[in-house]
């Protein structure tokens, strides 16, 4: 792990511990205990549609080059790597693309579609953030703790749109610019090839596929808000689905601007704890929700990462035997 990421991780952990201690263990674990094992099982199931739509978003860019389950498994691996390994979100993208390659997607298509998929997700996130701010604007302005940040949230959302446009334009400006951008988070051996750049441009010349991918990403964001609503419900908090859209959109924006912190440690905990009271629940419920989401990531993510390691290990062993 790079020293910068390590420092960010330590700072995030310190923030998470501070928030937990400040709110109090008893209150937090009372909310978690309210969910019980049955509630936790429901939390696991309610997260599946999110991954399903994210997989459809990626598949929309490439078409049925491999079975749908490959996209589903690769996207879950991408998220599990981001949530559990000491990487930023960019590392998870590379691992997810690698899984697709092992299942039959060509390296150039896997990595180039991952770049365009990020663009589609950003476009959807911009729409989702706008929707969330519109829903929660009145409550945010009425909040003593968050009212002062409302203008910054609005400005940040407005700036996100030209940022996405610039990202797309720069990728289409030619081989050098596209390779330079992609080279920031994709293997250089792939990023700096004419074929890779040509594939990027080919994907952007199919606006219907890009629009469909963005639509599935937007549905996935909304599904994530419904999942959040389920978690609040099993914890005993009475927060509506529309309010959860507002909470999730703001939290997603916070995670986006703190992408350098692995797994958004501390940011997620503090964010939910701060936002829950704005929409009618105590901070202990917000923190309980965050910890239950982390628990889900661990319970599902560890088997997924172990399975990936087994596949990679088996492949490496086979390559040695052939050599």
Number of strands: 0
Main sheet overview: none
Overall structural class, as computed from helix and strand content, comes to mainly alpha
Number of helices: 14
Molecular structure report:
It contains 14 helices and no strands. The chain has 323 residues and is mainly α. The two termini are 31 Å apart. The protein has one domain. The longest helix is centred in the last third of the chain and has 40 residues, at 283-322. Keywords: Cell membrane, Membrane, Transmembrane, Transmembrane helix. This is Putative membrane protein. The chain crosses the membrane at residues 36-58, 84-106, 118-137, 149-170, 210-232, 271-292. It is a multi-pass membrane protein.
What order do the helices and strands come in, and which of them pair?
Layout: H1 3-23, H2 25-46, H3 48-62, H4 68-84, H5 89-102, H6 107-142, H7 150-171, H8 175-182, H9 188-191, H10 194-204, H11 207-235, H12 241-257, H13 267-275, H14 283-322
Helix pairs in contact: 1-13, 2-11, 2-14, 3-4, 3-6, 3-11, 4-5, 4-14, 5-6, 6-7, 6-10, 6-11, 6-12, 11-12, 11-14, 12-13, 13-14
List keywords for this structure.
323 residues, 82% helix, mainly alpha, globular, single chain
Short summary:
The chain is an all-alpha fold.
């Amino acid at each position: 792990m790079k020293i910068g990421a390590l420092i960010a991780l330590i700072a995030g952990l310190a923030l998470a511990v501070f928030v937990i201690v400040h709110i109090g263990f008893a209150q937090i674990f009372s909310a978690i205990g309210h969910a019980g094992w049955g509630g936790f099982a429901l939390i696991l199931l309610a997260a599946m549609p999110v991954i399903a739509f994210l997989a459809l978003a990626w598949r929309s860019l490439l078409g049925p080059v491999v079975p749908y389950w490959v996209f589903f498994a690769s996207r879950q691996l991408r998220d599990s790597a981001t949530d559990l390994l000491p990487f930023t979100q960019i590392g998870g993208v590379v691992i997810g693309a690698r899984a697709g390659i092992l299942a039959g997607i060509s390296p150039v298509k896997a990595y180039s579609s991952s770049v365009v998929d990020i663009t589609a997700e950003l476009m959807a996130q911009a729409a989702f953030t706008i929707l969330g701010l519109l829903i929660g604007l009145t409550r945010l302005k009425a909040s003593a703790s968050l009212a002062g940040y409302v203008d910054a949230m609005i400005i940040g959302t407005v700036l996100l749109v030209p940022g996405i446009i610039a990202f797309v334009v720069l990728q289409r400006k030619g081989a050098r610019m596209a390779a330079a951008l992609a080279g920031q988070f994709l293997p250089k051996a792939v990023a700096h090839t004419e074929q890779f750049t040509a594939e990027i441009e080919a994907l952007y010349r199919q606006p219907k596929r890009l629009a469909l991918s963005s639509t599935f990403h937007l549905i996935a964001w909304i599904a994530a808000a419904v999942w959040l609503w389920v978690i609040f419900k099993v914890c005993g908090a009475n927060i509506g689905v529309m309010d959860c859209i507002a909470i999730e959109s703001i939290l997603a924006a916070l995670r986006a601007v703190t992408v350098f912190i692995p797994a958004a440690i501390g940011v997620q905990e503090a964010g939910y704890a701060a936002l829950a009271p704005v929409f009618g629940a105590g901070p202990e419920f917000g923190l309980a929700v965050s910890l239950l989401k982390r628990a889900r990531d661990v319970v599902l993510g560890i088997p997924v990462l172990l399975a990936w390691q087994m596949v990679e290990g088996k492949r490496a062993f086979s390559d040695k035997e052939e050599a």
